[in-house]
Amino acid sequence: MTRKKKVMIAAASIVCVIIIALCILLIAAAIVGRELKVNPSRKLDGVDQEVQDALWYSSIAANSHNTQMWRVELYPDLSRLLITVDGSRTLSVVDPKRREAYISLGCYIETMSAAFDAYGYDTHVQCGDLSVQVSYSRRDNATVDNSRLALIDKRHTDKSGYHSDRIKQDAVSRLLNKYAALSIYQSDSDSFTYLKQASMDAVALQSADRAYREELAQWMRFSDKEALDKLDGITADMIGLKGVVKAFYYWTTTRESAKGDKFARQGIATAKSQLDNCGAFAVITGGNTFEELIDVGRITQAFWFDCADNDIAVQPFSAALETEPFSLSIDNDLGLDAPIQMILRLGYVDSYGVNSGLRRSLSDYIDVIR
Ligand SMILES: Cc1cc2nc3c(=O)[nH]c(=O)nc-3n(C[C@H](O)[C@H](O)[C@H](O)COP(=O)(O)O)c2cc1C
């Protein structure tokens, strides 16, 4: 064989090896980058199927860092639930006073009342001392309202970039009429510019803080396996990564690297792009007692259902409320006479999507008591 032929065969072999390696990489990326499918147990032994199902839908509620910080006692013979905060799942760095935990509990209770209603049950909610009691009773001839259940599944946090168009005025007017605690600032207003700047500055300050980074990293998930083992926290899917990008993120990010400067810089860049790409901010005000914060959570969740129904994408943006000095001056600067408890980024997207449904099995946090 001539030398030229040998060189050509060697070159062809190298090209083949590279192509095979690329194919293997692409197949692996396609497998790792598949959408996460969650199938936790909805079973609670000896409890009516509809109540089990309603409790499952209740858990598809907004909650800070998806820690699902609720504990539930279910008294099936009394048709009653007692809901408290699970202190092992609260966020001591960003939420030392449990403000967001109580709001999250409110979101859970509002979703619960929507879910029970969809299954044909009336609910009665009563706030106690750091606990909430929910009693339920089945209406006569009730049928299941599947469109309501679909709305619970549709509502989710969308961290992607939105179109910058203003929110349609008729939707804004309807929402403002419905919720007294709500203000909406369209993207061409001074208050929007103020909130955007405060949020950006707060994100930069938080990202530089070691304790903040460690707490966030604890609730980030770094593989589908970890997400399915723990059934909580924030996955690649929930931050909007799909396919090869999701695979690359899981291959290159560890809990340790997520505490580093590079990850923090990426977080700041993502926040900037999120804030540059939205149509408005919504702000929800309310008092600071347990009961008032439960109310704020209920209003937030109900408002979010309405947004989903109107195809308005939503992402809470809590950094400015979690960080001084921003949290100290924001109410005054916006001229509001009650404390701001939630800031939410709003906008329109091409494809609305659905909730990832990453939630724990019911028996993980519900004690059935007879
Ligand atoms: C009180 C509260 C504060 C939140 N703050 C933020 C936030 O600052 N940034 C963000 O992206 N999501 C935030 N979220 C959204 C949660 O991360 C989200 O609800 C949770 O991961 C569950 O996902 P889901 O809303 O898609 O069901 C917040 C939610 C609540 C209830």
Name its key features.
370 residues; NADH Oxidase; 3 domains; five-stranded mixed beta sheet; four-stranded antiparallel beta sheet; globular; binds flavin mononucleotide
Structural overview:
- With 370 residues, the chain is of the alpha+beta class.
- A five-stranded mixed β-sheet has the order 3-4-2-1-9.
- Helix 1 (3-32) crosses helix 9 (243-252), helix 3 runs antiparallel to helix 4 and helix 6 runs antiparallel to helix 10 (261-276).
- The protein contains 14 helices and nine strands.
- The mean pLDDT is 96.
- The structure holds flavin mononucleotide.
- Flavin mononucleotide binds at residues 62-66, 100, 103-104, 107, 156-157, 159, 234, 238, 315-319, 355.
Helical residue percent? Answer: 40-55%
Q: Percent of residues in beta strands?
A: 5-15%
Count the DSSP helices. 14
Q: What's the total number of strands?
A: 9
What do we call the CATH homologous superfamily of the largest domain? NADH Oxidase
Going across the biggest sheet, name each strand in turn.
3-4-2-1-9
CATH topology of the largest domain: NADH Oxidase
Cα radius of gyration in angstroms? 23 Å
Small molecules (ligands, ions, cofactors) in the structure? flavin mononucleotide
Reported CATH architecture of the largest domain: 3-Layer(aba) Sandwich
Instruction: Just give the CATH class of the largest domain.
Output: Alpha Beta
Low-confidence stretches: none
Taking all residues together, what is the mean pLDDT? 96
Q: What's the arrangement of secondary structure elements?
A:
Blueprint: H1 3-32, H2 49-58, E1 70-75, E2 80-85, H3 99-118, E3 121-127, E4 131-138, H4 146-154, H5 169-178, E5 182-186, H6 190-207, H7 210-219, H8 224-230, H9 243-252, H10 261-276, E6 280-285, H11 290-309, E7 313-316, H12 319-322, H13 326-333, E8 340-347, H14 362-365, E9 366-368
Parallel strand pairs: 1-9
Antiparallel strand pairs: 1-2, 2-4, 3-4, 5-6, 6-8, 7-8
Helix pairs in contact: 1-9, 2-3, 3-4, 3-11, 6-10
Bound molecules: flavin mononucleotide.
